[in-house]
Amino acid sequence: MLAEHVARGAEMSVCCLEVPIEEAAGAFGVMVVDEALRVIGFEEKPAHPTPVPGEENLTLASMGNYLFNTRFLFQVLEEDAEDPDSSHDFGNDIIPKIIHKHNVRAFPFRDPVTGERAYWRDVGTLDSYWEANMELRSTHPELDLYDPKWPTWTYQPQLPPAKFVHNEDGRRGMAVDSTISGGCIVSGSKIVNSLLFSNVRVNSYSEIEESVLLPEVVVHRNCKIRRAIIDRGCEIPENCIIGHDLERDKANGYRVTDKGLVLVTRKMLGQRDGYA
């Protein structure tokens, strides 16, 4: 993207994904481009996105990744800061102001080997975040964390391997079609179609289904959790049921999305929020 930015003499480049028009409608900001991929318009989540020239079924969805020439970025930020009518947002204010006067280019994000549409997910909502995580634990995910040709370079603390304990009928530590991170202990409980981030503890007789448990979550005994996101550091008390009765979840102060996904945070549980 940087090389293309320099080669085209761009002042700003926007990384975009070629997506079907019906997928982008009402969901993504769309870049309108000419045949040379110069940006000539910007549509904020349009109902009827403008197609890519020559591709009537595809449009260019902005991925929210921008590349600026330094001096130009300083200039447009200073101008925007002085505008009392601006909401100071790239999509709403800055990009629409500069595309007609400056060289702004779209960069289609493609797989460098195949040239096909590359993997990308917008996780700006609870539902999309949950769906992206569910994809990771599938048998053949589009983004394969185990692919040695595409390693994940990030800080990761040294943790002991996940442990599964107890092997009794009704109290068997097990996980199926799930991803369990280092430091986790699954003690006499059942994990199905779920992701457990680091240092999660699930105690005996509990069942976790289609859920994402963030780091340091503790689930006490006899809990049933389904289609939920449990926020970092939550301590789920004994006999707690989440995701099986959405009306009860709402009454308990949990957030329930339109798709029936439940979010639980420490604050909702009445626990002190000691995490950033």
Q: TL;DR of this structure?
A:
This protein is of the alpha/beta class. The protein has six helices and 23 strands.
Query: The CATH topology of the largest domain, please?
Result: UDP N-Acetylglucosamine Acyltransferase, domain 1
Helix-strand category:
alpha/beta
Second-tier CATH architecture of the largest domain:
3 Solenoid
Mean pLDDT: 93
Question: Which blocks of ≥5 consecutive residues have pLDDT under 50?
Answer: none
Approximately how much beta-strand content do the residues carry? 25-35%
Fraction of residues in H or I helices: 10-25%
Broad shape: elongated
Q: Radius of gyration from the CA trace?
A: 23 Å
Element-level helix/strand string? HEHEEEHHEHEEEEEEEEEEEEEEEEHEE
Tell me the domain tally: 2
What is the terminal separation in angstroms? 33 Å
CATH structural class of the largest domain: Mainly Beta
Report the major sheet: 6 strands, mixed
Corresponding CATH superfamily of the largest domain:
Hexapeptide repeat proteins
User: What spatial order of strands do you see in the largest sheet?
Assistant: 10-13-16-19-23-22
Number of helices: 6
What is the number of beta strands?
23
Q: Could you explain the architecture of this structure?
A:
This protein has 276 residues and is α/β, with parallel strands linked by helices. The protein folds into 2 domains: 119 residues, Spore Coat Polysaccharide Biosynthesis Protein SpsA, Chain A, CATH 3.90.550.10; 155 residues, UDP N-Acetylglucosamine Acyltransferase, domain 1, CATH 2.160.10. Helix content is 17%, strand content 29%. The strands form 5 sheets. The protein has a 6-stranded mixed beta sheet. The chain has a 5-stranded mixed beta sheet with strand order 3-2-4-1-5. The longest helix has 12 residues. It is elongated, with a radius of gyration of 23 Å. The chain starts with a helix and ends in a 12-residue tail after the last strand. The mean pLDDT is 93.
